[in-house]
Amino acid sequence: MPKYVGAVDSGTTSTRFMLFDHSGSVVAYDQQEHEQIFPRSGWVEHDPLEIWQRTQQVIRNTLAKAQIQPQEIAAIGITNQRETTVIWDRQTGQPIHNAIVWQDTRTDRICQEMERGGHRDRFYHGTGLPLATYFSGPKIRWMLENVPDARARAEAGELLFGNIDTWLIWNLTGGQHVTDPTNASRTMLMDLRRLEWDEELLAILDIPRAMLPEIRPSSDPGIYGLTRPDGPFGAAIPVCGDLGDQQAATVGQTCFDPGEAKNTYGTGCFMLLNTGTEIVHSRNGLLTTVCYKMGDAPAVYALEGSIAMAGATIQWLRDNLGLIQDAAETEAIGQSVPDTGGCYFVPAFSGLFAPYWRSDARGVIVGLTRYTNKAHIVRAALEAICYQTREVLDAMNADSGVPLQRLKVDGGATVNNFLMQLQADILGTEVVRPKVRETTSLGAAYAAGLAVGFWEDLDALRANWQQDRSWQPQLDEARRAKGYAGWKKAVERTFGWASEDT
Ligand code: ADP
Fold first, then answer.
1. Is pTM, for the whole model, over 0.85?
2. 258: helix, coil or strand?
3. Which contiguous run of DSSP H or E holds residue 160?
4. Less crowded by CB within 10 Å, the N or C end of the chain?
5. Which of 220, 233, 247 is nearest to 452 (CA)?
6. CA–CA separation, 16 vs 129, rounded Å?
7. Residue 415 has what DSSP assignment?
8. What is the pLDDT of residues 275-332, one digit of tens each?
9. Which atom belonging to ligand 1 lies closest to the Cα atom of 264?
10. Cα 100 to ligand 1 centroid, rounded to whole Å
11. pLDDT tens column, 429-484
């Protein structure tokens, strides 16, 4: 009997491979970063071949560390940075362009064209998404318009589109071209109800149907394909789980009941609230998205608050300003001052996502005086993560009508205990961290393991969830309200800064 399930977790900054046992504990893993390519202001790219190389390396390294035979792995799940767009040649496997990353704003003009064409409502009602540079559809259109011969080749059926999940499954299985509804729900091309590509939206964006992958369940007993024996596993293992990273974290946190929510603190911050089999359209700037589809069971939906810059703000302090050497330092530096001295940092580097959806916003640091020092700015960066989360939680509470009692958290930045206390204080809500922090990888493993019967049902997964630590709000209500009012004022200062080309 196989003892493990594997998850490929290809995030915005790095790719991991993790092996989990039946209790949902990590048995072994390896992780490697890939290059962030910034060709121009507002543009962000990755090299898809580098991501595939890293994926193969982390799989090989993990197997070597764990000293196990591939036959001991029951199934493989994939989870990925969503929306990031790859187009490649069906015959050669060569990408026609670097991947255009979700944070990239080059498709602003295409989105404006859609707006002027009066298509906003059609996209919103069909896909649950606002017209924003974030999603894949406009990125596909940009490549078709800007890469020589791309349109003709796409129309001739020579090119394939995929998000990173599809790209990796295609490479791992030697040619299965599939995705799942969670990833497809971020393309602006999928009908949210029918879970099929929407021909009318494809026509509006002028994207050939032949490029698109088949949409299969997130956990698929029918199996997407077997890993190639000459690939990094050296064996044929079923690939049968696929979830976008934020949906995977929701599954990893076992938020299976309507009303349960999690927030993940990685490059960005992403809060998802399970709304059950019902599609809830937000009145407050949230997205409606597919949460998961397990086998034949009806799809479960979620409301999502997406924040573009969270942990990436800390990286920016390190890499662009040199204020810190390591993200972990922010914990001690942030605590070394009692407050930010009135300073606010709104990291609207690629516009503001939820709940504003303003591509004309750019980052500001306001309230500076001669008293302000490095610690205040570091603390303001941490607080920015928490205030952005507060705005999203407020929107969720307003949309659902039921205030959330406690927030389950995960992701790389949740190792920072000071950040977690700040979060509880700024929200006025309990914050809870699970023992297994790698909930994104775990969710992908769960999807794959359910498909092959490694785990019996959702209750078996719920039983694996264990609390590590929780934080209670300690700030009094008056200070909380004052701080939040200052933040709102700072956010207003970011609006209308960017012109069309910046
Ligand atoms: P992703 O999956 O989006 O690549 P991770 O979940 O691996 O991201 O989290 C990495 C992010 O967390 C980075 O942006 C990093 O700056 C941030 N981070 C890591 N450790 C800390 C810390 N101690 N305090 C604050 N932020 C941190």
1. yes
2. coil
3. strand 159-162
4. N
5. 220
6. 29
7. G
8. 999 899 899 999 999 999 999 999 999 999 999 999 999 999 999 999 999 999 999 9
9. 6
10. 21
11. 999 999 988 899 999 999 999 999 999 999 999 999 999 999 999 999 999 999 99
Nearest atom in ligand 1 to the alpha carbon of residue 13 is 4
Residue 437's H or E segment, with its range, is none
What order of strands is seen across the sheet that includes strand 14-20? 26-33, 14-20, 4-10, 73-80, 238-244, 225-226
* C-alpha closest to that of 143 among 83, 89, 98: 98
Continuous segment of H or E residues that includes residue 338: none
Q: How far is the CA of 71 from the centre of ligand 1 (A)?
A: 33
Q: Using the predicted structure, report yes or no on whether residue 502 has a pLDDT greater than 50.
A: no
Confidence check: pLDDT of 500 > 60: no
Mean pLDDT score across all residues of the chain:
95
Instruction: Dump pLDDT digits (tens) for 18-53.
Output: 999 999 999 999 999 999 999 998 899 999 999 999
Q: How far is the CA of 7 from the centre of ligand 1 (A)?
A: 19
Q: Which residues line ligand 1 (CB under 6 A)?
A: 11-14, 266-267, 311-312, 314-315, 327-328, 330-331, 411-413, 415-416, 419
Q: Whose CA is nearest to atom 8 of ligand 1?
A: 266
DSSP H helices, 291-406, are 311-319, 329-335, 374-400
Atom index in ligand 1 nearest the CA of residue 267 equals 3
Contact 83, 166 (CB under 8 A): no
Q: Cα torsion at 317, 375, 268, 430 (round to 10°)?
A: 170
Residue 233 three-state SS: coil
CA of 64 to the centre of ligand 1 (A): 26
Query: How many CB atoms are closer than 10 A to CB 459?
Result: 10
The protein residue with its alpha carbon nearest to ligand 1, atom 23, reads 328
Q: Whose CA is nearest to atom 19 of ligand 1?
A: 413
**Per-position DSSP letters for 127-163, written without gaps between them:** HS--S-TTSHHHHHHHHHHHSTTHHHHHHTT-EEEE-
- Residues 365, 317 contacting (CB under 8 angstroms): no
- What spacing in Å lies between the alpha carbon of 402 and ligand 1's midpoint? 30
How far is residue 217's CA from residue 293's CA, in Å, rounded to a whole number? 5
